[in-house]
Amino acid sequence: MSHHTAEAGFTSGYQTGTTGKESSGGDQGISSGGHSSTTRQKTVRDRNLGTIHGDLFTRPLNFDKRGELEGETSWTSGGVSGAPQEFRVNFVPVETFPETLIYQYHVQFEPDIDSKEFRQKILMQESVSKELGSFFIFDGMIMYLNREWDRERRLSGRHPQSGIPIEIRFKNSVCEGKPKQPHEPPQKTYLVPELCTPTGLTDDMRKDFRLMRALSHHTRLDPMKRAMSTKELINRLQASIECQALFDNWHFRLSDEIAGMIGRILPPERMLGSRNFEFTGQKAEWARELKRAGSFRTMHLSSWIIIYPRNEERMAVHFYERLGGLARQMDMGVAEPFAIPLDSTQPRDYQNGIQHALNTANNPNKPFCMIVILLPDDNKTRYDTLKKWLCTAYSIPSQCVQLKTLAGKPHAGGENKNFDSIVLKILLQMNCKMGGALWKVKIPLKETMIVGYDLYHDSTLKGKTVGACVSTYDKDFTEFFSQTRPHENPTQLGNNLMIFIRKALHRYQEANGQLPKRIILYRDGAGDGQIPYIRDQEVRLVKDACAEVVQQAGLPEDFKILLSFTIVTKKVNMRIFRVLQDTLINPDPGTVVDNTVTRPERFDFYLVPQYVNQGTVTPVCYNVVYDDTQLSPDRHQILAFKLSHMYFNWSGTIRVPAPCQYAHKLAFLVAQSIHQDPHEGLKDKLFFL
């Protein structure tokens, strides 16, 4: 009897399929590169992969999850670094008989019926079910049976409403689903407003502290409560006669316990501050240590503008005086600002004041390096207008601050007890926007460029999405080059990705005098349905862009930029629990799981980079769809954890690699406020934080 692990919904995503034996998932898989679609499908047939469709394979041939390959270039099991630890997950082992056959049929109705609900009701009618049986899985088009059905045999039923005769036909030719192709017209869905009900939480509901606290009792279950709820579901299913009959018909049963495995906890990362001062945070957070360590690379406020409402001049003066005091503690120079009080807070008044300062006080030998704007409220129109103007017309980074953020509560006498902490965070953010770096993490990769890519839908351009790409161009991986472009379909996205990679390589070459030997690319904003397209199209386009730049550089024909292309998925159903004696707790930051619950057709792993003290932490899935860099799984896992420490807008780890989060912030700013390409002079700064 073989054991597979499925989610708490008890459906294993890779076990259903065409007629044939269930796959054990132990085959070597298909190389993620260098094969055409036809070659890949032929290789799949030759390997007898059973129910796993060839287009889903992304695991390289030299990555063996069963440990049966031999040779120095093969990888087995996954990573090895870190301390082994026992874990549980919210998956339930499903025990199946390996000789069980599952047959798949395409069901057609004549005359055709659009409603999925009516199709299901017809199959449950007595005249149909007595022939077909009651044990089948039907999604409205595809039916799964555990016995073979005569393809020539037809059944008859009646329409649930009109009563007209309906003929049912079965075909065992599989109708494969596929994502929308680049040249297909957009798929439209029409909604009738009178039949729709709004869902989710309104802004007023989110501001209701009592409501959100009550809601959190149901949504933020701790690991022990979440595991117990899954256990209760298993008990109910096993006690149900109807469910047991269903399980017996499909020849499987559920385990009594949730799945467990041995994972690993990577050691905490050490950061480098000013003068290479080393420090390590507590529970993946290091705000206190940062103030003592200083910044790894500091940019001075040698000439800057502050503009504010005249009636808030006292607060403005208090702000920049305290800013200077904190800057001296961080060894950061702050000159006296060029202050501009305003009698009105309309966007045009802010623009006129800044323009006047730039025209009259800007010294060519000592140009302004920062514009600080104190805003009376969170008015989006004012913010968008100013950000669009500043980010497209000038190469000077800007910092917007709401005055109510600085002000204290009325019941506290107008004093903000956290004033210094807030000003320090603003100061550090300004340092990054000017080109500074707050800390450095030791990443032992040479001549390497790390790239993050993400998407965000533009709020003003219907049907358009903004793609953002952020890449490193220095040996310390602390300097970033940013780009954005809008697209309407996958073809434009792929073409934009080629442009991004070409420009990123040129920027790297400009800074280092040579091209990188490898690119590590992290792609966010992709669903499972897009994986075949990304592997077959986007990977090829990135490789073509690399080859084009290499040719333009006049390098030898045998010089090749190696590529690792990884899809990062934040929205996953899996939850990981650490076993601590007789209880379950959240796993520590740095937890890696790369066995048992990973997919047999992928080179994937789950990483928990953050510390969570409420609810249950959600891991992040990394799926390496292409890799010719010869980096081992262990080095991929360590690198992903290191990069979660490199987001300068938060003194702690984040869920995804920092270049991905930077790309997300950039895409969000452009899609929500700027709506066009930022100024060229800002592209080598983190102006979008």
UniProtKB/TrEMBL annotation:
<feature type="region of interest" description="Disordered">
    <location>
        <begin position="1"/>
        <end position="49"/>
    </location>
</feature>
<dbReference type="GO" id="GO:0003723">
    <property type="term" value="F:RNA binding"/>
</dbReference>
<feature type="domain" description="Piwi">
    <location>
        <begin position="370"/>
        <end position="675"/>
    </location>
</feature>
<protein>
    <recommendedName>
        <fullName>Piwi domain-containing protein</fullName>
    </recommendedName>
</protein>
<dbReference type="InterPro" id="IPR003165">
    <property type="entry name" value="Piwi"/>
</dbReference>
<dbReference type="InterPro" id="IPR012337">
    <property type="entry name" value="RNaseH-like_sf"/>
</dbReference>
<dbReference type="InterPro" id="IPR036085">
    <property type="entry name" value="PAZ_dom_sf"/>
</dbReference>
<dbReference type="Pfam" id="PF02171">
    <property type="entry name" value="Piwi"/>
</dbReference>
<dbReference type="Pfam" id="PF23278">
    <property type="entry name" value="Piwi_N"/>
</dbReference>
<dbReference type="InterPro" id="IPR003100">
    <property type="entry name" value="PAZ_dom"/>
</dbReference>
<feature type="compositionally biased region" description="Polar residues">
    <location>
        <begin position="12"/>
        <end position="22"/>
    </location>
</feature>
<dbReference type="InterPro" id="IPR036397">
    <property type="entry name" value="RNaseH_sf"/>
</dbReference>
